[in-house]
Amino acid sequence: MQIVRTVAALREAVAALRADGGRVALVPTMGALHAGHLALVAEGGARGPHVVVSIFVNPTQFGPNEDFDAYPRREAADARLLEDAGVAILWAPAVEEMYPQGFATSITVAGITEGLDGAARPGHFDGVATVVNKLFAQVRPDVALFGEKDYQQLAVIRRMAADLDTGVEIVGVPTQRDDDGLALSSRNAYLQPEERQAARALPRALGEAAAAIAAGGDVAQALEVARGRLTDAGFAPIDYVLLCDAATLEPLSRADRPARLLAAARMGRTRLIDNLEVPAA
Ligand code: AMP
Fold it and tell me: How does pLDDT run across 14-30, given as a tens digit for each residue?
């Protein structure tokens, strides 16, 4: 596996891969890799076969009071995992390489970014859309893989990729979970042991609400019960627990179309998000 840190070196390395034939798959990450990221890499290998993984903790998608400085950085361990997974190129630019002096462009995807995490984290999706667009321009992949764990992000990227004629196929990969149901996340490392125990309430509350709604139960009531479960487990504040249209992410009061149940809440200093599919009742 080649580790590259400049756009020029990246272009050369990708050109060499392409000379070999076969498609190039890109997996964008912020590092501190876990089995969720590796599921994206495996899917990329199946669709590639060449896989490029980026590790870049993107400052522009963090708010001023968020965890940019504290975000876990473990590049050496990540590189070993990626090498073992058969990744061809690790693209790990410094902030100055990604955003050189004078950088002045930002991409805003309207509508779908406005609710949920877009409301809770102003500017977050501009940072995501801009950096992913740059990654597409740098790597020029055939296909790029994103986790359903960040469901709104996946929807935003799909919108942007289509709107900007990127020609990149966007593939969503199901959420990988620990044995007790908690979605794998680099931020789980922030959880104290007792917080980690209590955090199981998040997938449980969503699972219970999704089942109640799928069985024809009242949506508002199911969401209220889920919020109560989260509060009882020690989550505070709860940013949202909402049923949304699976494609547009508009909030729904009835599950009369393909829908997604999404939640974000804080456990101690750790903000966790999760989501589940809800089939039409
Ligand atoms: P991150 O490093 O958190 O920016 O995540 C990089 C990519 O991995 C994103 O597309 C995430 O949605 C995806 N991802 C993170 N956690 C999981 C998970 N538990 N299951 C599947 N994909 C995930």
Answer: 999 999 899 999 999 99
Alpha carbons within 13 angstroms on the beta-carbon side of residue 134 total 22
- pLDDT one-digit tens code per residue, 94-123: 999 999 999 999 999 999 999 999 999 999
Catalytic residues: 37
Strand partners, 90: 3, 53
Q: What is the set of domains in the chain, with CATH numbers?
A: 2-173 (3.40.50.620), 191-276 (3.30.1300.10)
Q: Give SS3 for 26.
A: strand
Beta strand spans in the chain (E): 2-4, 23-29, 49-55, 89-91, 143-147, 169-173, 238-245, 259-267, 270-278
Bond before 279 cis per omega within 30 degrees: no
Rounded to two decimals, the pTM is: 0.98
Position 279 scores a pLDDT of: 81
Q: Average of pLDDT values for 32-48?
A: 98
Q: How far apart are CA 41 and CA 51, in angstroms?
A: 7
Ligand 1 within 6 A of CB of 147: yes
Q: What is the structure's pLDDT at 281?
A: 67
Residue 273 Cβ contacting ligand 1 at under 6 Å: no
Which is nearest to 117 in space by CA: 281, 279, 271? Answer: 271
Q: How far is CA 45 from CA 17, 23, 49, 143, 145, in A?
A: 13, 9, 5, 11, 10
Any ligand 1 atom below 6 A from CB of 146: yes
Ligand-binding site membership of 63 (annotated)? no
pLDDT in tens, 169-178: 999 999 999 9
Given the DSSP bridges, would you call strands 49-55 and 23-29 parallel, antiparallel or unpaired? parallel
